[in-house]
Give the backbone structure.
Amino acid sequence: MTDVTTGDRVTTSDLETRLTVATRLVEEAGRMALAMRPRAGAPAATLKGVQDWLTEADGAIERFVGAALAQAFPQDGFLGEEGGRRANAPGRALTWVIDPIDGTANYARGSTRFCVSLGLMAGDEALLGVVAAPALGEIYAAARGHGATCNGSPIRVAATTVLERGTVELGWSRRRPDAMFQAMLAAVMGTGAAVRLGGSGALALMDVACGRTDAYVELHSNLWDVAAGLAILAEAGARISPFTAGPTMSEGSPILAATPAVAGPLAASIGAVIEPGALGLPVDWR
């Protein structure tokens, strides 16, 4: 495998080593998250913005994983949702990207639907990803060319062929107008698909990867929301919108991930009612 920026080789052994370390760290981070999880009730967190929650665990987990990765792979860069940054060593382009708690609004209320998400990028290429949902007892992992697993068993997207029999999860973000989300919701409901909102984009992507749902769409995601999922989805056979072709670092981008047969019809339905190019896809995407 070639590093898309430098031309250096990222060997199979390199990926396997990093996947092993990432899995161990994310599993440990998941245990930290469980130990620090608030009790059920009103949110035990602070607000960074409207419905944008921050808990003590977010910072603690990001610092723990960032420090461990710096020790294990000092030449690699690091990007965290809560401000953790480390530049790549000169001539290197590998960057770890972490969302320490995805589904923070759920987590802050003591819910089970949250996860720790860690991905490795080479430029705009997703090389590997690990997602741990400790309260659900699940850990997802994949490395490019090595397949995707949940708790060590291979996973694959569903074989659903028509949206009328499908389930689509939607993500909601205040970074896009409410009217745009409402139009997307109406368009998806118009296809006949069942609609779900679960509050964790990373776990929504895992549900697509393992076949529990048929698609996930959100009009604004950041790189840390999807870095791990991009690698896992690709290995599980999903179709994915060109997320890394957009301004992922500074502004965020839409994300659509789906089982292959429904990806095109879903993109066409959504693209017919929201601003042109909002998914970065032609309406006849296949």
Summary: The CA atoms of residues 211 and 274 lie 27 Å apart.
